[in-house]
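Bit of a strange request maybe. I'm writing a small parser for structure token strings and I need a real example to test against, not something I typed by hand. Could someone generate the tokens for this chain?
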Amino acid sequence: MLVVGPCCGTGKSHLAQALGHCAVRLGVDVVFTASASLTASLNAARAIGAYDRKLASLARVPLLIVDDFDLKPLRPPADEDLHDLIAGRYETAATIVTSNLDFAEWDQAFPAKRLLASATLDRLRHNAYCLVLDRQSYRAPKLGPTTAKPNVANGGKSTHSGPRRDARFEPS
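Reply from user aminoacidic:
Good idea to test on real output. This should exercise your parser:
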């Protein structure tokens, strides 16, 4: 499943996490990771000689959720690592990917190797459910309650007679 949305805060990660929680409740093993953390962990495994074992472990997990696919461009060897992982999971395990990029822009995440991008994205898109969350951010600032402004004609006293809006609620 590929979940995209043009801006932050549209619910892509939230939806992916919810699907992951549902899978866990059904007894499915799930790994949820940010794209940058995923490639960093593969690179760290390479440094200690455990790359093949780490790659095989991630390739076998029944559901892999890769969040924020496009936040940082993939530089070598991260681009090859991601390709190897996606190719290893292709048609054998479920993968959910979230991104702020439109599907047509996903190759921009692979600035160094367009052919590698094409091969990786072809595997991701094949038989994938594609969901576009095109709405305003849930994190958009919300306007707080307005308070009455002092009325200069009343000597600076507020004409507001309702409850104080800046009062704190204290449970009894």
